[in-house]
Amino acid sequence: MVKREAEKLLRSYAKQFRAIAIVGPRQSGKTTLAKMVFPKKPYVSLENPDERRLAQEDPRSFLARYKSGCIIDEVQRVPEIFNYLQQILDESSKDGQFVLTGSNNFLMQASITQSLAGRIGFIDLLPLTLNEISATQTSERVASNNKLKESSTPPRYINTDELILSGCYPEIYDKNRDPRIWYPAYIRTYIERDVKQIRNIESTLHFHRFLKLCAGRCGQQWSASALSNECGVDVRTINAWLSVLVSSYIVFLLPPHYKSFNKRIVKTPKLYFTDTGLACSLLGIKTASELSNSHFRGALFENFVLGEINKERTNKGNPFEFYYWRENNGLEVDVLIEKAGEMLPIEIKSAQTYTDTFIKSIRQYNKLSGQSKGILLYDGQQEWTSPEQLAIVNWRKIAGLLV
To answer: Domain check: are 233 and 195 in the same one?
Structure first.
């Protein structure tokens, strides 16, 4: 079992809140993390029809079995239970009493805002980071060799296209699943179960088409009107469907940074998938060779790196905000990370060979902002610092750069 980077945050929250909610996409490892950190707590899943029926029909009796606390899985299935949890938490001074997990942030947030505000800490658990995937590879090698201690051999190097194609869901690596089989099943389950919990969508065929069209727009500015024309549904429905994708952690939006330096700037967010393996499946990309020759490769590479930045942010409890910056004349910086009141510009390039044009946007941004720093993340191996103190590094170093 791989140690998750969010474990430290979870243990910290358990000392500061009477309840903790672990939310994230289905199959991101929420239950595994909760059981690992709290092995002595009773566990109950509201996916179980009998438990769910009891929680719905007699919530007091259901919770009476767990007065000292427990792990409640997929708690959004019975949102009315939050009202009864409130009284239990108010009458107790014990921190870390209940651990709630759910794959639907919209239902969780709506219920908790009404009843448990101030009593509960939120942790967003996304799929594995690159470092966690590497740790998974190490664990598998140690287990296969029947070794009792950590191996000193570095983990197998997974090339960039394999990472983008396979995505980062734990089961892909823990169970050695074939992404070509696993992701279509995941998408079908998501549409038939999770989506219907959030919103009554009559035409799942239209929604599936919408999902595929979103995959083709990784890294692009969100345009509800364009998708409305292609899907054949109205703009209001498209925006409602987007909220479904965001609340169930299928996509996330990267907001623009509004500081204009006396120039007109774009104020539309950009769309990214939480996991590139899912995006590749929706795009019909089945092999690393297909990916390397696909015109989507650059956008998916950018998406993967943005996903790593997002995971670094959530695993540390959101210590920074990040944006993109673009002027109407086309000048754009892929990522601006705001930390301690300062902005760090980052450019992301999928090429393995450096050219000086890669840092053109950072130079121009620094000229306008009056600062002198920035990072280029690319797929090459050569690393150095430019004369104006811009770091050119391999994208796999991103986690260390954000500490």
So the answer is: yes
Same domain, 148 and 205: yes
Measured distance CA(301)–CA(38) in Å, rounded:
36
Is the same domain home to 111 and 237? no
51 and 115: one domain?
yes
Contact indicator for 119, 19 with CB cutoff of 8 Å: yes
Q: Which of 91, 124, 157 is the last residue of a domain?
A: 124
User: Per-residue confidence of the chain (403 residues) as pLDDT tens digits?
Assistant: 788 999 999 999 999 999 999 999 999 999 999 999 999 999 999 999 999 999 999 999 999 999 889 999 998 888 888 888 888 888 888 899 999 998 876 556 666 766 777 788 999 999 999 999 998 876 555 555 554 454 444 556 789 999 999 999 999 999 999 999 999 999 998 887 778 777 777 778 889 999 999 999 999 999 999 999 999 899 999 999 999 899 889 999 999 987 766 666 678 999 999 999 999 999 999 999 999 999 999 999 999 999 999 999 999 998 889 999 988 777 899 999 998 778 999 999 999 999 999 999 999 999 988 888 999 999 999 999 998 889 999 999 998 888 7
Q: Which of 102, 124, 146 is the last residue of a domain?
A: 124
* Residues 133, 81 within the same domain: no
Domain enclosing residue 40, as ranges: 7-124
Closest by Cα among 255, 247, 248, 272 to 164: 272
What is the per-residue DSSP string for 40-90?
Answer: TS-EEETTSHHHHHHHHH-HHHHHHTTTT-EEEETGGGSTTHHHHHHHHHH
Q: For residue 253, is it within any domain?
A: yes
